Amino acid sequence: MLEVLNHPLITHKLTQMRKKETGTKDFRENLDEIAELMAYEVCRDLPTRPVSIETPIGPTTGFELSREVVIVPILRAGIGLLDGIRRLVPTAKVGFIGMYRDEETLKPHEYFAKFPSNLDEAIVMVVDPMLATGGSAVDAINAIKKRGAKTIKLVSLVGVPEGVQAVQHAHPDVDIYLAALDDHLNEKGYIVPGLGDAGDRIFGTK
Ligand SMILES: O=P(O)(O)OC[C@H]1O[C@H](OP(=O)(O)OP(=O)(O)O)[C@H](O)[C@@H]1O
Ligand SMILES: O=c1cc[nH]c(=O)[nH]1
Ligand SMILES: [Mg+2]
């Protein structure tokens, strides 16, 4: 399943991020706000269970989330989506996976992994602003499945058909959410038109 979240607020904020003159502070703030808006949509189908409660007026049946949510940002750039999602799901646990893409081969390399226990019972959101070749997302999901995760959602800001197809081919069971589906990758593996190097723009490197 691929869902492109076409919402005017998301598109407006993403446009600010795409502009080359947007600095680190505004880039980060817009990303944080988009993360919150995307989380609202991504969480739309979270399972709930009925609970008997008492309001000040009397008894009723309410509904509470019935499964734990685990957010897994792909370091570094995925960190930019973490706080916005956590504001909506403050009880979520957080795992981390560090991946960098070799600039020549475009192949991802894992350099860090730390996950909470019981991934098998959780709804795991893998988050990374950019879905380019899809190599980083595919490997991150492999690592999470190896630890038992069964229900996985991939939340990215900007993707291209190549990356979407790579994830769908390797992990047909994973739902993919994007804020925009861009055109193609250039010869250096950057998304066109994209927004440049997300990690560098979030953290002010380069
Ligand atoms: O789909 P892919 O072709 O694998 O490319 C996407 C990856 O590239 C970027 O990370 P990068 O390697 O620049 O690391 P960073 O987050 O530390 O900047 C981005 O944040 C993704 O993780
Ligand atoms: O366009 C791209 C592709 C990969 N990683 C980024 O940060 N940007
Ligand atoms: Mg980067």
TrEMBL record:
CDD domains documented for this protein: PRTases_typeI
Residues the record lists as binding 5-phospho-alpha-D-ribose 1-diphosphate: R76, R101, D128, P129, M130, L131, A132, T133, G134, G135, S136, D197
Reaction equation(s) it catalyzes: UMP + diphosphate = 5-phospho-alpha-D-ribose 1-diphosphate + uracil
Cofactor: Mg(2+)
Record's cofactor remark: Binds 1 Mg(2+) ion per subunit. The magnesium is bound as Mg-PRPP.
A GO molecular function held by the record: GTP binding
Keyword set includes Transferase: yes
Superkingdom assignment: Bacteria
Family: Belongs to the UPRTase family.
Name this polypeptide is given: Uracil phosphoribosyltransferase
Protein's organism: Grylomicrobium aquisgranensis
